[in-house]
Specification:
Elements (H helix, E strand, L loop, with lengths): L8 H17 L2 H10 L4 H9 L18 H15 L5 H14 L2 H14 L4 E4 L15 E4 L5 E11 L6 E8 L9 E7 L5 E6 L9 E11 L4 E2 L5 H7 L1 H29 L1 E2 L2 E2 L4 H29 L5 H26 L10 H10 L7 H16 L3
Parallel strand pairs: 1-4, 2-4
Antiparallel strand pairs: 2-3, 3-7, 4-5, 5-8, 6-7, 9-10
Helix pairs in contact: 1-4, 3-6, 4-8, 8-9, 8-10, 8-11, 9-10, 10-11, 10-12
C-alpha cells in the first residue's frame, strides 16, 4: 500500500471554516491575554465546540462528527498556525474521547453535557508522577481496599494541566500494591473538592496558556462509581491512544512552527540593514531554507503517520520517530525565528519567543526526545533483522 494524500474538498472547506471562526473569535491581543491569565475564555472554548470543531472525531452517539485521523490532525495543525499558540481546545478532544471510549453511560453523559456547555472537559489528566513519567511501572499512587471493602486512593501526581480550574481529575493508580512488579492499574474520576484532594500550582516558563501543578491525594475515598473503564486495565487504556496523542502533539508543534516561520519570513523582508532587507543576506536565506525543510519534513512525517493509522497500519515505530524528529526540528525552527527577529524576538512584541518556549515544552510532553530514542531504537534492529 503506497502512501499518498491529497486534501479532499471537504477537508479544504473545513479548514476555511476554521479560519473564519478564528477571525471572528480570536486575535493576537486576546491570545496574549490568555497567556497572562493562564487560561482561554470559556465563551471562546464553547464557541469552538458549538461550531463543530471540538466534536470532530467523537462518536456520532454522543453528537460528534466521526472523521479520519488526518482530518483531525489538519484541524489541530491549522489552529496552531493561526494562533501561534498552544490553545487547549486542540488537545481537549483526546481527553473527551477517553471517556466516550472507556466510560459508562452515566459518566459519558455527565462529561458530554459539561463539554458542550463549557467548551472544555470537566477534568484534568493526572497520569505522571515525580518518579514516574515515561517509567509507568514506577508509579506509586495506589488504591487500597480494607477488610470492609472501603477503597482509598493515596499518592502524588505532577504536571497536571488545568488542575486548578477543573471540577474533576482523571487519575491512574495501581490496584492494591504499589510495588514495581504490579502492572494492574485503574482509572478514577475524582472530584477536586473531595476530602484528601489538594492541588498545588507550579510555575512554568512556557506554554503558560494552561496552568499545571501537583495533585496530592491523601486517603481519598473512591467507589466503583468513580472507576473509568475496567479495573486493572488502566495501563492498557493509557497505551491504546498514546500513539495518536503523539500525532496530535506534533500537529500542534508543526502548526506553531509554521506560524514562527511565516512571521520570520515576513519580517526578513521588512527589516532593513545597510539599506537592504535582511532577506537578501545569505545567512538569513540559509536559516529560512533550513526552517522550511524542517517544517516540510515534519508535516510529511505527520501526515504519513495519520494516513497509516487511517489504513490500519502499525505506527509504533513511525510515531516515535515523528515525535523525536518533529519536536526537536520544529523547536529549532522557532529558535531560528527568534534569531531572525534578533532583539525584537526576545520581547513580547512578537509571538516567536512565546512559540519557542511552547515548543521547548513539547520536547518533554507526550514522551521526551530521549524516550522516543528508547522506543524506536529497540524496534529498528528488529525491522531489518530479516531484511
Amino acid at each position: 500500500m503506497a502512501y499518498s494524500y491529497t486534501l479532499t474538498e471537504e477537508q479544504e472547506l473545513l479548514l476555511q471554516s476554521l479560519r473564519e471562526w478564528y477571525a471572528q473569535n480570536l486575535d493576537e491581543q486576546k491570545i496574549k491575554g490568555y497567556y497572562e491569565a493562564e487560561g482561554v475564555a470559556e465563551d471562546v472554548q464553547k464557541s469552538y465546540v458549538d461550531a463543530g470543531f471540538g466534536m470532530i472525531g467523537l462518536p456520532e452517539s454522543v453528537g460528534g462528527t466521526e472523521a479520519d485521523k488526518l482530518t483531525q490532525i489538519l484541524v489541530v495543525e491549522e489552529l496552531g498556525r493561526l494562533a501561534g499558540a498552544m490553545l487547549p481546545m486542540a488537545g481537549n478532544i483526546l481527553a473527551v474521547h477517553d471517556i466516550t471510549e472507556f466510560g459508562n453511560e452515566a459518566q459519558i453523559k455527565m462529561v458530554m453535557e459539561y463539554y458542550k456547555e463549557h467548551g472544555k472537559p470537566p477534568f484534568s489528566l493526572a497520569f505522571s508522577e515525580p518518579g514516574a513519567g515515561s517509567d509507568n511501572m514506577n508509579m506509586s499512587a495506589v488504591v487500597t481496599t480494607d477488610a470492609n471493602g472501603k477503597m482509598t486512593l493515596s499518592g502524588q501526581k505532577t504536571w497536571v494541566s488545568g488542575g486548578a480550574k477543573s471540577d474533576y481529575s482523571l487519575v491512574i493508580a495501581k490496584d492494591d500494591d504499589p510495588s514495581r512488579s504490579n502492572n494492574k492499574m485503574s482509572w478514577w474520576l475524582i472530584p477536586m473538592d473531595r476530602e484528601g484532594v489538594q492541588f498545588q500550582p507550579l510555575e512554568k516558563i512556557g506554554n503558560k496558556i494552561s496552568q499545571f501543578g501537583d495533585l496530592f491525594l491523601d486517603n481519598v475515598v473512591v467507589t466503583e462509581d468513580d472507576l473509568i473503564g475496567e479495573r486493572g486495565k488502566g495501563f492498557l487504556q493509557l497505551m491504546k491512544n498514546f500513539e495518536f496523542e503523539r500525532l496530535v502533539t506534533v500537529a500542534m508543534v508543526v502548526g506553531e512552527a509554521q506560524a514562527a516561520l511565516e512571521d520570520a519570513a515576513k519580517y526578513s523582508l521588512q527589516r532593513h540593514t545597510f539599506e537592504k532587507p535582511i532577506a537578501s543576506y545569505q545567512l538569513i536565506m540559509e536559516k529560512l531554507t533550513d526552517m522550511e525543510i524542517a517544517v516540510w519534513n515534519s508535516r510529511n512525517m505527520l501526515y504519513e503517520c495519520a494516513w497509516r493509522m487511517d489504513n490500519g497500519l502499525d505506527i509504533r515505530l513511525q510515531s516515535s520517530l515523528l515525535k523525536r524528529y518533529g519536536a526537536m526540528a520544529c523547536h529549532k525552527v522557532a529558535d531560528e525565528a527568534v534569531q531572525i527577529f534578533a532583539g525584537l524576538g526576545f520581547t513580547t512584541e512578537t509571538r516567536v519567543g512565546r512559540i519557542m518556549l511552547d515548543l521547548r515544552g513539547l520536547r518533554i510532553g507526550a514522551g521526551t526526545d530521549e524516550i522516543m530514542v528508547y522506543i524506536a531504537g529497540r524496534m529498528i534492529p528488529k525491522k531489518y533483522a530479516n531484511a
